[in-house]
Amino acid sequence: MIVEQQHFEVRDMRYTIRSANEEDAAALSQLRVKIDGETEHMDREAGEAFISVENFRILIQRDSEQERNLFLVAVADNRLIGFSRCEGIYLKRFAHKAEFGVCILKEYWGYGIGKELLRTSLAWADSAGITKMTLNVLETNKSAIRLYERFGFQIEGVLQNDKVLSDGRYYNTVVMGRFRG
Hints:
Distance between the termini: 22 Å
Number of helices: 4
Helix content: 25-40%
Number of strands: 8
Low-confidence stretches: none
Largest sheet: 8 strands, mixed
Structural class: alpha+beta
Radius of gyration: 16 Å
């Protein structure tokens, strides 16, 4: 699905949120690897589950055409600085749901970019008749958990000892959902 472009300014930093297009594929391929290497909040380490430029083009095209998918990018200083995806489920018993994920370059944390990507995604979901949004977040990512709770997400469960981080310790994944029936 495609949504209307939006512009924001926070503390003298201007950024745009818009639907991804196929010309973004190369930048997205590089951006995803960089973000994965900046934090352990993500599921992957840098380079794991690599998505090529061509595969990003296919993903963007599919998400643009599917009414239950949404692929957004955040742009500042004429470069991609983050993205989010909502992927709908097409099985009839789960067709009311979509899963949300977001990635922002670390140097751009604190500007509300994740918040606006989430807000845009939720507005799209509500207009598309998607009544449940789900997401997973690492237990140590307290700021993300607080943000999700402010937008009506609730903790639905915890996956115990779900991830092993660089310190060799196990961490839990928090499963969250927002239901609007």
